[in-house]
Each structure stands twice: as C-alpha cells, then as structure tokens.
Amino acid sequence: MSAPAPAAFRHDPHAAPVEAAERAKRLIDPGFGRVFTDHMAVIRYSDQAGWHDAHITARAPLPIDPASSVLHYAQEIFEGMKAYRLADGGTALFRPQANAARFRDSARRMAMAELPDDLFIESIERLVAADSDWIPEGDGALYLRPFMIASEVFLGVKPSAEYIYMVIASSVGAYWKGGVRAITVWVSRDHTRAALGGTGAAKCGGNYAASLIAQKQAIAHGCDQVVFLDAVERRWVEELGGMNLFFVFADGSLQTPPLTGTILPGITRDSLLTLARDAGLTVREEPYAIDQWRADAQSGRLVEAFACGTAAVVTPVGRIADRDGDFTIGDGTGGPVTDRLHQSLVAIQRGTAPDPHGWLHRL
C-alpha cells in the first residue's frame, strides 16, 4: 500500500506564460502532441515520506540524475486522456476514474508506488484549471499525459524507492493528418506486442518501444499502423500498435478480442462496448483469427472494422496488408456502424447528448 496523499497541493504560477496572441496562433492548427501548455503537475514519492510535494508549476525540462532507475530498468507508466470544451461552454474530463484505476493497475504490475485515485484526479483538475485557455475551440481538445518514473539514484536491479509523478498537457486537433479516414494496417508476422504473464495489460512505455520496429515495417509497406497477433500461436488478432480493434459483421453484430492479459484494457474500448449494447447490438468479446478475418472480409460476412483509443477516438480500418495476401474490408472506407458509434461517443464527450452512464466529469 502507498502512503497517504499529501495534505495540500500548492500552485506556483508560471512567471512568463505564453502571450495570448501567440497562444492563439499555436491553437489554429495544433496537430497532435507538439503544442504544450504553460504548466505541469508534479508529485514526488519516497518509501520514507510517501506522496509529498504536490504542486502545479511552470512546464520546464526535468533535471534527472544519469543513474536514475528509469533510465536503466524502465520502471515507467503513463496514461492518456482529454479535457473537452463542452457545448454549454463548460469543461469536462471523460471517465477520469477509469484512468486513475488503470494507472494504479499499471503501477502494481510494474512494482511501482500506487498513486491514490483522488490525488490522480486532483492533479488533472488543477492542471486543466491552470491551462484551460489552451483548450482549442471546435473539435480540438486538451490531451493530458499523466506519467510516473522511477527516480531513485541506484544501479541495482530492484523496484525503485523513489518516484516522480507528473502531468503535462498538449493542445491537440485531429490525430490523423487530414482528419478521420480509413487506415491501412500491416500484419506483423515477425514481432509480437505481449505474451501471457507479461506487461501487455499495463500502460508502460516498454510495450510501445517493443512495437516500434513493427510500426517501422508497416510504414515501409505503405501502411498507417501495425496489427499484432498472439505470441503463442501467431494466429489470433490482438490489437494495433496503440489502439484496440473491433469487427462489424453483416448481421449487425460486433466482435473484439477478449482481455486476457496481453491486451491493454482501453477505456474507449469499454465505452464503445457499452454504447453498442445500449444501441441493441450484439457484442462478443471473443478471439478472432487472422485467417478468419481475411475469409470473412472476402466473403462479405465482415463489413467493417475499426480501431479505437483516446488519441484517435474511432478510426475505420479499410485495408489489411499481409505477406500472405492483402484484403479490403467492405468498400475500404468504413461504414455506418463505425460512424454511428463514433458520433455517439463524441456527442457524450462534447456534452451534446445525454450522459446516462455518468462518464463526464465536469470541472
């Protein structure tokens, strides 16, 4: 168990924040993950003091000792979430409690200190309050990146006794350049993302680092993303490099790979499962083989496929490139079920539709 949260969260405002006119220029077309706000949240942990020194401060480079544990043994976890400008002018987070719980789960798997949920959410709330002017108008959002690194200065192989938790924020537009479009996916036959007993269900940097060589191959083959198969049989479809997968069949049903410990339990994934069931669709969480994927696409049994995640939200998958032969899903552009689920989710996130599950966390 981690020590109790600190009693107070101090605010050290930026002495020279970005001028309003310059900020407005940066928000015209921010892209994704390159425009950062003025502040960041920081909380420290040690086995002796517990969680302490919680504060909002000016975003700045992080001084770190070259012997810090994270640089040698990769004890690191992170989250991804967004703050939205609502239709009524307010601001909200989407399911931050789920992010807090997953952050704790990741910390436990990586033998790191577990940040209390209320402190996780407070750090997000305070950073958004400090930098709310950085939320773009229209379809943009404020992407929030909570993360934690092992900071003990020690070269022995053991869980760190000290950690730094931080949150940075980035003004973002569309994840894909040019907006939502159907992507092409490369099937990785040489590399796997995770194995049973590994860290596949944890949101840790090592999972993404291990996926980059396959992503590089995907780009070399003219594809946008890579899809991984299971590590044992190299048969079952698992997930993309950074997104979960759904399949839509001609009978109107949906299927997605089950959470067996090798797939990240996506919050967008879980939300779409709920929305699909709310809409009366049959949803299955069952294994799906790559050969079956090809056969179903070619026969017309499979009519749509889409990827989902916090950054890209919902992205149609139009074509699969594979050394065993390429194939196209439907007409290669997406489909009505994908569009409907996408619109339903975004409407709740933006506050333009009812929120029956209480997902919006208004600030």
TrEMBL record:
<comment type="pathway">
    <text>Amino-acid biosynthesis; L-leucine biosynthesis; L-leucine from 3-methyl-2-oxobutanoate: step 4/4.</text>
</comment>
<dbReference type="InterPro" id="IPR018300">
    <property type="entry name" value="Aminotrans_IV_CS"/>
</dbReference>
<dbReference type="InterPro" id="IPR043132">
    <property type="entry name" value="BCAT-like_C"/>
</dbReference>
<dbReference type="InterPro" id="IPR043131">
    <property type="entry name" value="BCAT-like_N"/>
</dbReference>
<keyword id="KW-0808">Transferase</keyword>
<dbReference type="Pfam" id="PF01063">
    <property type="entry name" value="Aminotran_4"/>
</dbReference>
<protein>
    <recommendedName>
        <fullName>Branched-chain-amino-acid aminotransferase</fullName>
        <ecNumber>2.6.1.42</ecNumber>
    </recommendedName>
</protein>
<comment type="similarity">
    <text>Belongs to the class-IV pyridoxal-phosphate-dependent aminotransferase family.</text>
</comment>
<keyword id="KW-0028">Amino-acid biosynthesis</keyword>
<comment type="function">
    <text>Acts on leucine, isoleucine and valine.</text>
</comment>
<dbReference type="InterPro" id="IPR005786">
    <property type="entry name" value="B_amino_transII"/>
</dbReference>
<keyword id="KW-0032">Aminotransferase</keyword>
<dbReference type="InterPro" id="IPR036038">
    <property type="entry name" value="Aminotransferase-like"/>
</dbReference>
<keyword id="KW-0100">Branched-chain amino acid biosynthesis</keyword>
<dbReference type="InterPro" id="IPR001544">
    <property type="entry name" value="Aminotrans_IV"/>
</dbReference>
<dbReference type="GO" id="GO:0008483">
    <property type="term" value="F:transaminase activity"/>
</dbReference>
<comment type="pathway">
    <text>Amino-acid biosynthesis; L-valine biosynthesis; L-valine from pyruvate: step 4/4.</text>
</comment>
<dbReference type="InterPro" id="IPR033939">
    <property type="entry name" value="BCAT_family"/>
</dbReference>
<keyword id="KW-0663">Pyridoxal phosphate</keyword>
